[in-house]
Amino acid sequence: MIKFGRAFFAKIIAVAVAFSAVSVQAAEKLYVYNWTEYVPSSLLEKFTKETGIEVIYSTFESNEEMYSKLKLSDGGGYDIVFPSSYYVGKMAKEGMLAELDKSKLKNLANVSPSLLGKPFDPENKFSLPYVYGLTGIGVNSAEIDPKGLTSWGDLWKEEFKGKVLLMNDAREVFHIALLLDGKSPNTENAEEIKTAYERLVKLLPNVLVFNSDSPEIPYLQGEVSLGMQWTGSAHRAKMENPNLQFIFPKEGAIVWMDNYAIPKNAKNKEAAHRFIDFLLRPESAKEVIETMGFSMPNEGVKALLSAETANDPLIFPPVEEIEKGILQGDVGNAIETYEKYWNLLRTNR
To answer: 81 in helix, strand or coil?
Structure first.
């Protein structure tokens, strides 16, 4: 009979414990709910390699879709979400978000101070900015002379019948109509929203598609010639087709900001904080900018970029255009009015 000493059994136990720890780590998952094409897959792979945490990545096309799904699941199905500014305020008021533990965010100092402390989350208790940008006018200069486009109102011209793209987003679409009516894009007045709807009905003959998933694609495929466009999407489109240009409308572009937030009932808040901290690194911001073309509010990233990228107005929009634009805010219960007329608008098609 072979006898084994205490040292042997101690080693066996140590190996078992280590194997168990590795198995637990490998089994750990982070459920991310984000906009399409918002985090490069290469970054997700790096995060998993570094932490052992598997990222389960799901996407949504609108804030409304994201909000509804979180409501149905009571926020327990995801560990981190990326709502736009005005939805952060709404979700925080409704108790849907957990407060961030900033002691877990070693890279917090990299966040640009100019994009902190906004009205929707004055102390950034529930959110931090991930990406930001402007929505303006995209145009294919091979088909339409950009010099004739200066205003949101130009989208209504009869000559553009069946050529226009609008975002698949109620607030962004109503934003431009309210601006043209001389009203606040954050109005809660039902009559003003109705009047904006009536203006938008007149635009419908020109609208070929609503797209907030990958809005550069219809331009690249030649389906549309002009319409709404994000700076980030415009940057990606221009890389493939130099004829696709971006115009800052004279009334002001739409300023938007999408944010890190953790649902109140998230099951893995620790991993969510690790993921946020990982993306706050300048090196991660560089990868997002160079892959996705979105603006990152990161103080350390410009030093890592080429001079051409660092000075690209689609990556870092001019300060005067940001100041002229209006950041969308929470409209409280008026969101139901927007949704009512948005559904009517889509039905009228």
So the answer is: strand
